[in-house]
Specification:
By secondary structure, the chain is of the alpha/beta class. The chain is built from 5 helices and 6 strands. The protein has a 6-stranded mixed beta sheet. Strand 4, helix 4 and strand 5 form a beta-alpha-beta unit. The N and C termini lie close together (about 5 Å). The structure holds 2-acetamido-2-deoxy-beta-D-glucopyranose (4 copies). One 2-acetamido-2-deoxy-beta-D-glucopyranose binds next to helix 2. The site of one 2-acetamido-2-deoxy-beta-D-glucopyranose (NAG) has 5 residues, from loops.
Length: about 200
Amino acid sequence: MALLSLLSSKVSLSALAVGLSTFVSNTVAQTSFNCTEFFVPVSISAQTVELNLGSPHNQSELTSLVTRMTYLESTIVDEVTVGPSMVNATYNIWSQLCVPDGFEEDGVIEFTIHGGTENHTYFNFGKESPYNYAEAALKAGHAIFTYDGLGVGNSDKPDGIQEVQIGTETAVAIALVEKLPSLLSFGKVVGVGHAHGRYDN
Ligand SMILES: *[C@@H]1O[C@H](CO)[C@@H](O)[C@H](O)[C@H]1NC(C)=O
Ligand SMILES: *[C@@H]1O[C@H](CO)[C@@H](O)[C@H](O)[C@H]1NC(C)=O
Ligand SMILES: *[C@@H]1O[C@H](CO)[C@@H](O)[C@H](O)[C@H]1NC(C)=O
Ligand SMILES: *[C@@H]1O[C@H](CO)[C@@H](O)[C@H](O)[C@H]1NC(C)=O
């Protein structure tokens, strides 16, 4: 199933009972919105690909790997693919939820997925900057959820080659969307992805 179509489908209003307090570690009151930062533990089971590839030892090995991956007609994927594998794991994902004052139970929450080489700040940087996406969403009356992807920022950093793959990243995103109703009462989730964060499987 396409991730973004799943994310943009309506999510049930029920499961509100758990409440924010379980997850909240820090609350910052702003003039017109509140942001809370917390870790969400997500348990996932995901299809991965076993790769016959070790971590680069130094910068020149890394550069050479990226070159082998990106040149036209690269065959590295076929060369290193061993076969399908599976990851069952629980990860702690650093998350931030910002809610505008007066947010209604039928309101929109935006669920953001940043790109590769980025973290949650892609959507939320520079207070009152015209380029701050989160603040623009909040001004439009939407709640917004941002997070550091698996292996990024303050989130858990498992094996970057065997575990941090599109299958695991997608499973983490779906698990987080499923947690949203326990964090906030809302009417609809809209998925927002940038670059690598817009891929589905
Ligand atoms: C990088 O590591 C590889 C493998 O350990 C080694 O052969 C190579 O000489 C190293 N290159 C540099 C520039 O240190
Ligand atoms: C992972 O979980 C799946 C079911 O979700 C199970 O079939 C599989 O055996 C598990 N694999 C491992 C290595 O635990
Ligand atoms: C934000 O926090 C303030 C102070 O705790 C509270 O009065 C206000 O209702 C909160 N707003 C939202 C949208 O939760
Ligand atoms: C998030 O990304 C920004 C911009 O690249 C960087 O300055 C910051 O250190 C990163 N934060 C974390 C927690 O990795």
